[in-house]
Amino acid sequence: xxxxxxxxxxxxxxxxxxxxxxxxxxxxxxxxxxxxxxxxxxxxxxxxxxxxxxxxxxxxxxxxxxxxxxxxxxxxxxxxxxxxxxxxxxxxxxxxxxxxxxxxxxxxxxxxxxxxxxxxxxxxxxxxxxxxxxxxxxxxxxxxxxxxxxxxxxxxxxxxxxxxxxxxxxxxxxxxxxxxxxxxxxxxxxxxxxxxxxxxxxxxxxxxxxxxxxxxxxxxxxxxxxxxxxxxxxxxxxxxxxxxxxxxxxxxxxxxxxxxxxxxxxxxxxxxxxxxxxxxxxxxxxxxxxxxxxxxxxxxxxxxxxxxxxxxxxxxxxxxxxxxxxxxxxxxxxxxxxxxxxxxxxxxxxxxxxxxxxxxxxxxxxxxxxxxxxxxxxxxxxxxxxxxxxxxxxxxxxxxxxxxxxxxxxxxxxxxxxxxxxxxxxxxxxxxxxxxxxxxxxxxxxxxxxxxxxxxxxxxxxxxxxxxxxx
Length: 471
Ligand code: PM9
Hints:
The protein folds into 2 domains: 3-60 and 326-469, Aspartate Aminotransferase, domain 1 (Alpha-Beta Complex), CATH 3.90.1150; 72-323, Type I PLP-dependent aspartate aminotransferase-like (Major domain) (Aspartate Aminotransferase, domain 2). It is 41% helix and 12% strand. It contains 17 helices and 12 strands. It has a 5-stranded mixed β-sheet, sandwiched between helices. Helix 5 runs parallel beside helix 6 (138-146). The longest helix is centred in the C-terminal third of the chain and has 20 residues, at 326-345. Residues 63, 65, 112-114, 137-140, 195, 199, 228, 230, 268, 270, 279 line the site of ligand PM9.
Protein backbone atom coordinates (compact mmCIF):
# COMPACT_ATOMS: atom_id res chain seq x y z
CA UNK A 1 0.00 0.00 0.00
CA UNK A 2 1.35 3.45 -0.86
CA UNK A 3 1.66 6.23 1.73
CA UNK A 4 -1.19 8.17 0.17
CA UNK A 5 -3.37 5.03 0.40
CA UNK A 6 -2.89 4.95 4.20
CA UNK A 7 -4.25 8.48 4.39
CA UNK A 8 -7.16 7.66 2.11
CA UNK A 9 -8.05 4.68 4.28
CA UNK A 10 -7.96 6.85 7.42
CA UNK A 11 -10.21 9.47 5.84
CA UNK A 12 -12.59 6.83 4.53
CA UNK A 13 -12.98 5.28 7.99
CA UNK A 14 -14.07 8.69 9.25
CA UNK A 15 -17.00 8.88 6.80
CA UNK A 16 -18.06 5.30 6.23
CA UNK A 17 -18.21 1.94 7.99
CA UNK A 18 -15.14 -0.26 7.94
CA UNK A 19 -15.16 -4.01 7.35
CA UNK A 20 -12.81 -6.88 8.05
CA UNK A 21 -10.22 -7.51 5.28
CA UNK A 22 -11.23 -11.21 4.98
CA UNK A 23 -14.21 -13.44 4.33
CA UNK A 24 -15.17 -16.64 6.15
CA UNK A 25 -14.40 -19.97 4.44
CA UNK A 26 -14.94 -22.48 7.25
CA UNK A 27 -17.18 -22.27 10.33
CA UNK A 28 -17.28 -23.94 13.74
CA UNK A 29 -20.79 -24.24 15.23
CA UNK A 30 -21.35 -22.80 18.71
CA UNK A 31 -24.42 -22.84 20.94
CA UNK A 32 -25.64 -21.51 24.25
CA UNK A 33 -26.48 -23.89 27.12
CA UNK A 34 -29.69 -23.34 29.07
CA UNK A 35 -29.54 -21.23 32.21
CA UNK A 36 -29.79 -24.34 34.37
CA UNK A 37 -26.93 -26.02 32.51
CA UNK A 38 -24.79 -22.89 32.83
CA UNK A 39 -25.40 -22.75 36.58
CA UNK A 40 -24.30 -26.38 36.92
CA UNK A 41 -21.22 -25.85 34.71
CA UNK A 42 -20.17 -22.70 36.62
CA UNK A 43 -20.51 -24.42 40.02
CA UNK A 44 -18.54 -27.46 38.78
CA UNK A 45 -15.82 -25.08 37.53
CA UNK A 46 -15.56 -23.43 40.97
CA UNK A 47 -16.68 -20.12 39.35
CA UNK A 48 -13.34 -19.95 37.57
CA UNK A 49 -13.79 -19.45 33.82
CA UNK A 50 -10.46 -21.26 33.16
CA UNK A 51 -12.03 -24.43 34.56
CA UNK A 52 -15.05 -24.45 32.25
CA UNK A 53 -15.19 -26.91 29.39
CA UNK A 54 -14.98 -25.08 26.09
CA UNK A 55 -18.07 -26.96 24.88
CA UNK A 56 -20.07 -25.29 27.66
CA UNK A 57 -19.09 -21.80 26.43
CA UNK A 58 -21.12 -19.81 23.89
CA UNK A 59 -18.87 -16.87 22.88
CA UNK A 60 -15.34 -17.46 24.12
CA UNK A 61 -13.63 -14.20 25.08
CA UNK A 62 -11.34 -15.73 27.69
CA UNK A 63 -8.24 -14.86 25.72
CA UNK A 64 -6.79 -13.87 22.35
CA UNK A 65 -4.00 -16.40 22.96
CA UNK A 66 -3.89 -19.27 20.48
CA UNK A 67 -7.49 -18.56 19.51
CA UNK A 68 -6.92 -16.77 16.18
CA UNK A 69 -8.39 -18.06 12.93
CA UNK A 70 -5.57 -18.93 10.56
CA UNK A 71 -5.74 -17.91 6.91
CA UNK A 72 -6.04 -20.28 3.94
CA UNK A 73 -2.37 -19.52 3.21
CA UNK A 74 -1.31 -20.52 6.72
CA UNK A 75 -3.27 -23.79 6.44
CA UNK A 76 -1.62 -24.43 3.07
CA UNK A 77 1.75 -23.75 4.72
CA UNK A 78 0.95 -26.35 7.41
CA UNK A 79 0.93 -28.99 4.66
CA UNK A 80 4.51 -28.04 3.84
CA UNK A 81 5.77 -28.89 7.32
CA UNK A 82 9.27 -30.36 7.27
CA UNK A 83 9.16 -32.57 10.36
CA UNK A 84 12.85 -33.44 10.42
CA UNK A 85 14.25 -33.48 13.96
CA UNK A 86 17.03 -31.08 13.01
CA UNK A 87 17.35 -28.22 10.53
CA UNK A 88 13.72 -28.14 9.36
CA UNK A 89 13.26 -25.80 6.39
CA UNK A 90 10.36 -24.19 8.26
CA UNK A 91 12.76 -23.03 10.99
CA UNK A 92 14.70 -21.07 8.36
CA UNK A 93 11.48 -19.50 7.07
CA UNK A 94 10.62 -18.48 10.64
CA UNK A 95 14.11 -17.10 11.21
CA UNK A 96 13.93 -15.05 8.00
CA UNK A 97 10.48 -13.63 8.85
CA UNK A 98 11.57 -12.54 12.35
CA UNK A 99 14.82 -11.05 11.04
CA UNK A 100 12.96 -9.19 8.28
CA UNK A 101 10.05 -7.75 10.28
CA UNK A 102 11.40 -7.47 13.85
CA UNK A 103 15.04 -7.01 12.87
CA UNK A 104 16.72 -9.21 15.50
CA UNK A 105 19.74 -11.35 14.64
CA UNK A 106 19.54 -14.66 16.55
CA UNK A 107 16.30 -16.64 16.77
CA UNK A 108 15.46 -19.43 19.21
CA UNK A 109 12.02 -21.06 18.85
CA UNK A 110 10.07 -22.13 21.96
CA UNK A 111 6.78 -23.95 22.55
CA UNK A 112 5.04 -20.69 23.59
CA UNK A 113 5.74 -17.33 25.22
CA UNK A 114 6.52 -18.55 28.73
CA UNK A 115 9.15 -20.93 27.33
CA UNK A 116 10.98 -17.88 25.95
CA UNK A 117 10.43 -15.96 29.22
CA UNK A 118 12.02 -18.85 31.08
CA UNK A 119 15.11 -18.83 28.83
CA UNK A 120 15.69 -15.08 28.89
CA UNK A 121 15.12 -14.83 32.66
CA UNK A 122 17.57 -17.65 33.37
CA UNK A 123 20.10 -16.31 30.84
CA UNK A 124 20.20 -12.75 32.19
CA UNK A 125 19.15 -12.66 35.86
CA UNK A 126 21.50 -13.30 38.78
CA UNK A 127 19.80 -13.86 42.17
CA UNK A 128 19.45 -10.49 43.92
CA UNK A 129 18.90 -8.55 40.67
CA UNK A 130 16.04 -6.07 40.03
CA UNK A 131 14.00 -6.14 36.84
CA UNK A 132 12.13 -2.91 36.12
CA UNK A 133 9.11 -3.30 33.84
CA UNK A 134 6.12 -1.33 32.56
CA UNK A 135 3.61 -3.16 34.78
CA UNK A 136 3.83 -6.81 35.70
CA UNK A 137 2.57 -9.65 33.59
CA UNK A 138 1.73 -12.90 35.40
CA UNK A 139 4.03 -15.41 33.68
CA UNK A 140 6.78 -12.85 32.94
CA UNK A 141 7.12 -11.77 36.58
CA UNK A 142 6.96 -15.34 37.86
CA UNK A 143 9.89 -16.39 35.65
CA UNK A 144 11.85 -13.33 36.77
CA UNK A 145 11.16 -14.24 40.42
CA UNK A 146 11.99 -17.94 39.89
CA UNK A 147 15.35 -16.82 38.46
CA UNK A 148 16.01 -14.90 41.72
CA UNK A 149 15.02 -11.41 40.55
CA UNK A 150 12.64 -8.82 42.00
CA UNK A 151 10.24 -7.09 39.64
CA UNK A 152 9.89 -3.29 40.03
CA UNK A 153 6.98 -1.46 38.40
CA UNK A 154 8.17 1.60 36.42
CA UNK A 155 5.08 2.34 34.35
CA UNK A 156 3.68 5.91 34.45
CA UNK A 157 1.16 6.48 37.27
CA UNK A 158 -1.64 7.15 34.76
CA UNK A 159 -1.62 3.44 33.83
CA UNK A 160 -2.99 2.51 37.25
CA UNK A 161 -5.97 4.81 36.82
CA UNK A 162 -8.74 3.30 34.65
CA UNK A 163 -10.33 6.68 33.84
CA UNK A 164 -7.17 8.53 32.84
CA UNK A 165 -7.15 8.96 29.03
CA UNK A 166 -3.40 9.33 28.46
CA UNK A 167 -2.80 8.19 24.82
CA UNK A 168 0.29 6.13 25.76
CA UNK A 169 -0.53 4.68 29.15
CA UNK A 170 2.06 1.93 28.63
CA UNK A 171 4.93 4.44 28.80
CA UNK A 172 7.81 4.02 31.19
CA UNK A 173 8.35 6.73 33.81
CA UNK A 174 12.06 7.47 33.32
CA UNK A 175 12.35 9.07 36.75
CA UNK A 176 11.28 5.77 38.34
CA UNK A 177 14.16 3.97 36.57
CA UNK A 178 16.61 6.67 37.56
CA UNK A 179 15.62 6.37 41.22
CA UNK A 180 15.95 2.56 41.08
CA UNK A 181 19.45 2.95 39.56
CA UNK A 182 20.34 5.44 42.32
CA UNK A 183 19.01 3.06 45.00
CA UNK A 184 20.40 -0.34 43.89
CA UNK A 185 23.07 0.49 41.27
CA UNK A 186 22.97 -0.22 37.51
CA UNK A 187 24.96 -3.45 37.94
CA UNK A 188 21.96 -4.97 39.76
CA UNK A 189 19.66 -4.25 36.79
CA UNK A 190 20.34 -6.73 33.96
CA UNK A 191 17.63 -5.39 31.67
CA UNK A 192 14.42 -3.42 31.37
CA UNK A 193 11.40 -5.66 30.78
CA UNK A 194 9.41 -3.56 28.31
CA UNK A 195 6.02 -4.71 27.00
CA UNK A 196 4.34 -3.38 23.86
CA UNK A 197 0.63 -2.78 24.56
CA UNK A 198 0.59 -3.50 28.26
CA UNK A 199 -1.80 -6.36 28.88
CA UNK A 200 -2.59 -5.78 32.57
CA UNK A 201 -3.05 -2.01 32.07
CA UNK A 202 -5.82 -2.61 29.55
CA UNK A 203 -3.87 -3.13 26.31
CA UNK A 204 -2.22 0.31 26.49
CA UNK A 205 0.64 1.31 24.15
CA UNK A 206 4.17 2.68 24.54
CA UNK A 207 5.07 5.64 22.33
CA UNK A 208 8.07 5.69 20.01
CA UNK A 209 9.30 8.82 21.80
CA UNK A 210 9.24 6.94 25.10
CA UNK A 211 11.24 3.94 23.87
CA UNK A 212 13.77 6.32 22.26
CA UNK A 213 14.19 8.26 25.50
CA UNK A 214 14.43 4.99 27.45
CA UNK A 215 17.22 3.80 25.14
CA UNK A 216 19.17 7.03 25.71
CA UNK A 217 18.80 6.70 29.49
CA UNK A 218 19.81 3.04 29.78
CA UNK A 219 22.75 3.47 27.38
CA UNK A 220 24.32 5.82 29.93
CA UNK A 221 24.26 2.98 32.47
CA UNK A 222 25.00 -0.06 30.28
CA UNK A 223 21.53 -1.59 30.85
CA UNK A 224 19.76 -3.57 28.09
CA UNK A 225 16.12 -3.45 26.99
CA UNK A 226 14.26 -6.69 26.26
CA UNK A 227 10.83 -6.41 24.71
CA UNK A 228 7.74 -8.50 25.30
CA UNK A 229 6.70 -8.30 21.64
CA UNK A 230 3.55 -10.38 22.13
CA UNK A 231 1.16 -7.61 21.04
CA UNK A 232 3.53 -5.15 19.31
CA UNK A 233 1.28 -4.92 16.22
CA UNK A 234 -1.47 -3.23 18.22
CA UNK A 235 1.18 -0.97 19.76
CA UNK A 236 2.37 -0.06 16.24
CA UNK A 237 -1.22 0.74 15.23
CA UNK A 238 -1.61 3.18 18.14
CA UNK A 239 1.69 4.86 17.20
CA UNK A 240 0.51 5.17 13.58
CA UNK A 241 -2.78 6.65 14.76
CA UNK A 242 -1.63 8.89 17.63
CA UNK A 243 2.02 9.87 17.34
CA UNK A 244 3.24 12.86 15.36
CA UNK A 245 5.43 11.79 12.42
CA UNK A 246 4.02 8.25 12.12
CA UNK A 247 0.63 8.76 10.44
CA UNK A 248 2.10 8.00 7.01
CA UNK A 249 4.28 5.09 8.12
CA UNK A 250 3.29 1.46 7.65
CA UNK A 251 2.79 -0.89 10.60
CA UNK A 252 5.78 -2.91 9.36
CA UNK A 253 8.05 0.16 9.42
CA UNK A 254 6.89 1.17 12.90
CA UNK A 255 7.39 -2.34 14.27
CA UNK A 256 10.93 -2.50 12.82
CA UNK A 257 11.88 0.93 14.17
CA UNK A 258 10.52 0.20 17.66
CA UNK A 259 12.34 -3.13 17.93
CA UNK A 260 15.53 -1.41 16.80
CA UNK A 261 15.63 0.47 20.13
CA UNK A 262 15.68 -2.85 22.02
CA UNK A 263 18.26 -5.63 22.42
CA UNK A 264 15.93 -8.55 21.90
CA UNK A 265 12.43 -9.83 22.45
CA UNK A 266 10.40 -12.74 23.71
CA UNK A 267 7.20 -13.62 21.99
CA UNK A 268 4.00 -15.54 22.50
CA UNK A 269 3.34 -16.27 18.81
CA UNK A 270 -0.18 -17.28 19.91
CA UNK A 271 -1.21 -13.60 19.76
CA UNK A 272 0.10 -11.23 17.05
CA UNK A 273 1.60 -14.03 14.95
CA UNK A 274 -1.89 -15.45 14.26
CA UNK A 275 -1.27 -19.08 15.22
CA UNK A 276 -2.67 -21.54 17.74
CA UNK A 277 0.66 -22.48 19.33
CA UNK A 278 4.27 -21.27 19.34
CA UNK A 279 6.74 -18.75 20.66
CA UNK A 280 10.26 -17.49 20.19
CA UNK A 281 13.15 -15.60 21.68
CA UNK A 282 15.18 -13.24 19.49
CA UNK A 283 18.36 -11.46 20.59
CA UNK A 284 21.14 -9.43 19.03
CA UNK A 285 23.97 -10.31 21.44
CA UNK A 286 25.65 -13.55 20.27
CA UNK A 287 26.69 -14.42 23.87
CA UNK A 288 23.08 -14.21 25.12
CA UNK A 289 22.01 -16.27 22.09
CA UNK A 290 24.57 -18.92 22.95
CA UNK A 291 23.37 -19.12 26.57
CA UNK A 292 19.76 -19.42 25.43
CA UNK A 293 20.64 -22.06 22.83
CA UNK A 294 22.39 -24.08 25.51
CA UNK A 295 19.24 -24.02 27.64
CA UNK A 296 16.65 -24.50 24.90
CA UNK A 297 17.81 -28.09 24.38
CA UNK A 298 17.24 -28.77 28.10
CA UNK A 299 13.79 -27.24 28.48
CA UNK A 300 12.14 -27.00 25.03
CA UNK A 301 13.73 -29.05 22.23
CA UNK A 302 16.47 -28.71 19.64
CA UNK A 303 17.37 -25.10 18.76
CA UNK A 304 15.78 -25.48 15.31
CA UNK A 305 12.34 -26.40 16.64
CA UNK A 306 12.18 -25.48 20.37
CA UNK A 307 8.99 -27.45 21.02
CA UNK A 308 7.17 -26.56 17.78
CA UNK A 309 6.37 -28.87 14.89
CA UNK A 310 7.79 -27.82 11.52
CA UNK A 311 4.24 -27.07 10.28
CA UNK A 312 3.66 -24.78 13.26
CA UNK A 313 6.83 -22.81 12.51
CA UNK A 314 5.65 -22.39 8.91
CA UNK A 315 2.29 -21.04 10.14
CA UNK A 316 4.11 -18.54 12.39
CA UNK A 317 6.36 -17.38 9.52
CA UNK A 318 3.30 -16.78 7.33
CA UNK A 319 1.34 -15.21 10.23
CA UNK A 320 4.13 -12.63 10.68
CA UNK A 321 3.71 -11.54 7.05
CA UNK A 322 -0.08 -11.20 7.51
CA UNK A 323 0.00 -9.40 10.86
CA UNK A 324 1.99 -6.43 9.50
CA UNK A 325 -0.67 -5.58 6.89
CA UNK A 326 -2.11 -2.15 7.72
CA UNK A 327 -5.71 -3.28 7.08
CA UNK A 328 -5.32 -6.22 9.45
CA UNK A 329 -4.03 -4.09 12.32
CA UNK A 330 -6.73 -1.46 11.80
CA UNK A 331 -9.61 -3.92 11.70
CA UNK A 332 -8.29 -5.71 14.79
CA UNK A 333 -8.37 -2.58 16.94
CA UNK A 334 -11.58 -1.23 15.39
CA UNK A 335 -13.53 -4.36 16.34
CA UNK A 336 -12.53 -3.88 19.97
CA UNK A 337 -13.55 -0.23 19.79
CA UNK A 338 -16.93 -1.20 18.35
CA UNK A 339 -17.68 -3.25 21.47
CA UNK A 340 -16.23 -0.63 23.80
CA UNK A 341 -18.32 2.13 22.25
CA UNK A 342 -21.54 0.15 22.82
CA UNK A 343 -20.62 -0.19 26.51
CA UNK A 344 -19.65 3.47 26.89
CA UNK A 345 -22.98 4.49 25.36
CA UNK A 346 -24.65 2.61 28.25
CA UNK A 347 -22.24 4.22 30.75
CA UNK A 348 -20.78 0.86 31.74
CA UNK A 349 -17.39 1.45 33.43
CA UNK A 350 -14.44 0.29 31.31
CA UNK A 351 -10.76 1.16 31.10
CA UNK A 352 -10.12 4.10 28.79
CA UNK A 353 -8.71 4.70 26.27
CA UNK A 354 -10.00 1.45 24.76
CA UNK A 355 -6.98 -0.82 24.34
CA UNK A 356 -5.66 -3.09 21.62
CA UNK A 357 -6.85 -6.62 22.38
CA UNK A 358 -9.74 -6.45 24.83
CA UNK A 359 -12.29 -4.41 26.67
CA UNK A 360 -11.44 -4.27 30.36
CA UNK A 361 -14.51 -3.87 32.59
CA UNK A 362 -13.69 -1.88 35.71
CA UNK A 363 -15.03 -4.19 38.41
CA UNK A 364 -14.36 -1.69 41.23
CA UNK A 365 -16.82 0.76 39.66
CA UNK A 366 -19.11 -2.02 38.41
CA UNK A 367 -19.49 -3.56 41.90
CA UNK A 368 -18.50 -0.78 44.35
CA UNK A 369 -20.16 -2.73 47.19
CA UNK A 370 -17.95 -5.85 46.77
CA UNK A 371 -14.61 -5.51 48.63
CA UNK A 372 -11.48 -6.47 46.68
CA UNK A 373 -10.90 -9.47 49.00
CA UNK A 374 -14.24 -10.86 47.74
CA UNK A 375 -12.96 -10.81 44.16
CA UNK A 376 -15.21 -8.39 42.25
CA UNK A 377 -13.57 -9.05 38.85
CA UNK A 378 -13.77 -12.82 39.30
CA UNK A 379 -17.41 -12.36 40.33
CA UNK A 380 -18.13 -10.36 37.20
CA UNK A 381 -16.56 -13.01 34.94
CA UNK A 382 -18.71 -15.66 36.67
CA UNK A 383 -21.89 -13.55 36.34
CA UNK A 384 -21.32 -12.97 32.62
CA UNK A 385 -20.99 -16.69 32.07
CA UNK A 386 -24.16 -17.32 34.11
CA UNK A 387 -26.05 -14.70 32.10
CA UNK A 388 -25.17 -15.76 28.56
CA UNK A 389 -22.40 -18.35 28.37
CA UNK A 390 -19.91 -15.63 27.38
CA UNK A 391 -16.49 -16.47 28.84
CA UNK A 392 -14.16 -13.68 30.04
CA UNK A 393 -11.18 -13.56 32.43
CA UNK A 394 -10.28 -12.00 35.79
CA UNK A 395 -7.37 -9.50 35.77
CA UNK A 396 -7.31 -8.20 39.32
CA UNK A 397 -6.46 -9.46 42.78
CA UNK A 398 -6.58 -13.16 41.81
CA UNK A 399 -4.18 -12.64 38.89
CA UNK A 400 -1.88 -10.46 41.03
CA UNK A 401 -1.25 -13.37 43.45
CA UNK A 402 0.60 -13.08 46.74
CA UNK A 403 3.71 -11.11 47.66
CA UNK A 404 6.50 -13.76 47.90
CA UNK A 405 7.98 -12.01 50.97
CA UNK A 406 4.89 -11.36 53.10
CA UNK A 407 2.59 -14.05 51.70
CA UNK A 408 -0.28 -11.53 51.65
CA UNK A 409 -2.60 -10.91 48.70
CA UNK A 410 -1.26 -8.18 46.43
CA UNK A 411 -3.99 -5.53 46.00
CA UNK A 412 -3.59 -4.06 42.50
CA UNK A 413 -5.18 -0.66 41.81
CA UNK A 414 -6.80 -2.19 38.73
CA UNK A 415 -9.51 -4.77 39.39
CA UNK A 416 -10.58 -5.72 35.88
CA UNK A 417 -12.54 -8.31 33.95
CA UNK A 418 -11.03 -8.80 30.51
CA UNK A 419 -13.35 -9.30 27.56
CA UNK A 420 -10.73 -10.46 25.07
CA UNK A 421 -11.31 -10.58 21.33
CA UNK A 422 -9.63 -13.38 19.35
CA UNK A 423 -8.24 -12.33 15.96
CA UNK A 424 -10.41 -12.91 12.86
CA UNK A 425 -12.91 -15.12 14.75
CA UNK A 426 -16.08 -13.29 15.78
CA UNK A 427 -18.37 -10.90 13.91
CA UNK A 428 -19.96 -7.62 14.89
CA UNK A 429 -23.19 -9.52 15.71
CA UNK A 430 -21.29 -11.48 18.36
CA UNK A 431 -20.09 -8.16 19.79
CA UNK A 432 -23.72 -6.95 20.03
CA UNK A 433 -24.72 -10.09 21.96
CA UNK A 434 -21.75 -9.68 24.32
CA UNK A 435 -22.55 -6.01 24.96
CA UNK A 436 -26.18 -6.84 25.76
CA UNK A 437 -25.11 -9.54 28.23
CA UNK A 438 -22.73 -7.11 29.98
CA UNK A 439 -25.60 -4.60 30.16
CA UNK A 440 -27.93 -7.24 31.68
CA UNK A 441 -25.33 -8.11 34.34
CA UNK A 442 -24.76 -4.39 34.99
CA UNK A 443 -28.49 -3.85 35.54
CA UNK A 444 -28.44 -6.58 38.23
CA UNK A 445 -25.26 -5.29 39.86
CA UNK A 446 -26.72 -4.16 43.18
CA UNK A 447 -28.08 -7.63 43.96
CA UNK A 448 -24.77 -9.37 43.20
CA UNK A 449 -22.56 -10.72 45.99
CA UNK A 450 -18.87 -11.64 45.83
CA UNK A 451 -16.93 -14.91 46.02
CA UNK A 452 -14.89 -16.82 48.57
CA UNK A 453 -11.69 -18.59 47.43
CA UNK A 454 -11.77 -22.23 48.53
CA UNK A 455 -8.74 -23.62 46.68
CA UNK A 456 -5.54 -21.75 45.86
CA UNK A 457 -2.64 -23.27 43.90
CA UNK A 458 0.92 -22.08 44.57
CA UNK A 459 1.77 -20.63 41.16
CA UNK A 460 -0.35 -18.47 38.80
CA UNK A 461 -3.41 -19.10 40.95
CA UNK A 462 -5.87 -17.49 38.53
CA UNK A 463 -5.62 -20.52 36.23
CA UNK A 464 -6.80 -23.13 38.75
CA UNK A 465 -8.21 -21.45 41.90
CA UNK A 466 -11.75 -22.43 42.94
CA UNK A 467 -14.45 -20.24 44.47
CA UNK A 468 -17.86 -20.43 46.10
CA UNK A 469 -20.67 -17.89 45.91
CA UNK A 470 -21.03 -15.80 49.09
CA UNK A 471 -24.57 -16.13 50.42
N1 PM9 B 1 -1.02 -14.15 27.76
C1 PM9 B 1 -3.36 -13.97 27.89
O1 PM9 B 1 -4.47 -14.50 27.86
C2 PM9 B 1 -2.29 -16.29 28.02
C3 PM9 B 1 -2.90 -16.73 29.30
S1 PM9 B 1 -2.63 -15.74 30.75
C4 PM9 B 1 -0.98 -16.13 31.16
O2 PM9 B 1 -3.20 -12.73 27.91
C5 PM9 B 1 2.21 -11.49 27.51
C6 PM9 B 1 2.05 -10.02 27.40
C7 PM9 B 1 1.12 -12.33 27.49
C8 PM9 B 1 1.30 -13.74 27.62
C9 PM9 B 1 0.21 -14.63 27.67
C10 PM9 B 1 2.62 -14.23 27.75
C11 PM9 B 1 2.88 -15.69 27.90
C12 PM9 B 1 3.67 -13.35 27.77
N2 PM9 B 1 3.45 -12.01 27.65
O3 PM9 B 1 0.77 -17.85 27.08
O4 PM9 B 1 3.07 -18.67 27.36
O5 PM9 B 1 -0.09 -11.79 27.34
O6 PM9 B 1 2.27 -18.11 25.10
O7 PM9 B 1 2.70 -16.32 26.68
C13 PM9 B 1 -2.18 -14.80 27.88
P1 PM9 B 1 2.17 -17.83 26.56
